[in-house]
Amino acid sequence: DAKTTQPTSMDCAEGRAANLPCNHSTISGNEYVYWYRQIHSQGPQYIIHGLKNNETNEMASLIITEDRKSSTLILPHATLRDTAVYYCIVRVASWANNLFFGTGTRLTVIP
Amino acid sequence: GAVVSQHPSRVICKSGTSVKIECRSLDFQATTMFWYRQFPKKSLMLMATSNEGSKATYEQGVEKDKFLINHASLTLSTLTVTSAHPEDSSFYICSVWSGESEQFFGPGTRLTVL
């Protein structure tokens, strides 16, 4: 069962920030929020993950609400190469656990 | 992060033949690897968990005798699709946990069964 809800698709203008929302209202206290993306015909690529604090790395920022029931992935300056399906996943950060992929959000960056 | 390779990247085979797909963790010793399958325009579905030195754990509905998994070393897991049929045509992807709560995926293998 997917524990997350994401919009099916979104468009973003090249150079603008892409804000991808995710609802995870049933998240448990020990579950992290992970984001991956999959460019067409490639394996998924890890983007970022967090527990309750906002996180930032060279790819993106992750904003998690205080109640942890939702989060937003922010790509600060979207490029055409960011066009992909973005998956928001919640899971316990244990090496033995696999990831459950829902349907994700198909982000299209428009020139 | 961990670097994961798969070979071959694409394979076309005749119905009834067997196909072996290799997944290598190039810079990390992985006791556990995962195998996923993805049909066109669908999401990834976990097929099995590959455990080094022991039997793989298969998800419900995945035939263990058809999808043979061998995890003989800490850097190599293989998936063999036996007696392949056109309905087995799919994108097969493996993954490895880095040991630091991040899972890294291979580039995938596209199997087409004629």
Q: How is this structure best described in words?
A:
The complex is a heterodimer of chains A (111) and B (114). Chain A is mainly beta and 111 residues long. Chain A is built from no helices and nine strands. Chain A has strands at 9-13, 18-23, 31-38, 45-50, 55-56, 61-64, 70-75, 84-92, 105-110. Chain A has a five-stranded mixed β-sheet with strand order 1-9-8-3-4, with no helix packed on it. A four-stranded antiparallel β-sheet of chain A has the order 2-7-6-5, with no helix packed on it. In chain A, a hairpin with a 5-residue loop joins strand 6 (61-64) and strand 7. The model of chain A has no long low-confidence stretch (mean pLDDT 92). With 114 residues, chain B is mainly β. Chain B has strands spanning 4-7, 10-13, 19-25, 32-38, 45-51, 57-58, 67-73, 76-81, 90-97, 103-105, 109-113. Chain B is built from no helices and eleven strands. Helices cover 0% and strands 53% of the residues of chain B. In chain B, strands 2, 4, 5, 6, 9, 10 and 11 form a seven-stranded mixed β-sheet that branches. Chain B has a four-stranded antiparallel β-sheet with strand order 1-3-8-7, with no helix packed on it. The A-B interface holds A 32, 38, 41-46, 49, 87, 93-96, 98-104 and B 1, 4, 6, 32, 34, 36, 43-46, 49, 91, 93, 95, 97, 99, 101-108, 110.
Give a brief rundown of this model.
The complex is a heterodimer of chains A (111) and B (114). By secondary structure, chain A is mainly beta.
Any descriptors?
heterodimer, A: 111 residues, 4-stranded antiparallel sheet, 9 strands, B: mainly beta
SSE arrangement:
The complex is a heterodimer of chains A (111) and B (114).
Chain A: E1 9-13, E2 18-23, E3 31-38, E4 45-50, E5 55-56, E6 61-64, E7 70-75, E8 84-92, E9 105-110
Parallel strand pairs in A: 1-9
Antiparallel strand pairs in A: 2-7, 3-4, 3-8, 5-6, 6-7, 8-9
Chain B: E1 4-7, E2 10-13, E3 19-25, E4 32-38, E5 45-51, E6 57-58, E7 67-73, E8 76-81, E9 90-97, E10 103-105, E11 109-113
